[in-house]
Amino acid sequence: MNELFDVEVDEKDRRKGAFLWFRRKFSGAQALAISLASILALSTPVVLLASRNNSLSTAVESTLESGGYAATSTTVVGESSTTTVSGSGKKSSTAKKPGLVLPTRGVAPTATTIAANESSTSTVAPPAPPIVLAPPTTNAPGSVLRTLSFEVTAPVLKTYGDVAFTVSPATPSVGSGEVVYSSTNTAVCTVNAQSGEVSILGAGTCEISASVPASGTYAPAVTSANVSVTVNRASLTITASSASIAFSPSRYVATASYSGFVNGEYSSVLTALPTCEVLRPSDFEISSNDRRTYATSCSGAASLNYDISYVGGVLTVSNWK
Question: pTM for the whole thing?
Answer without folding.
Answer: 0.54
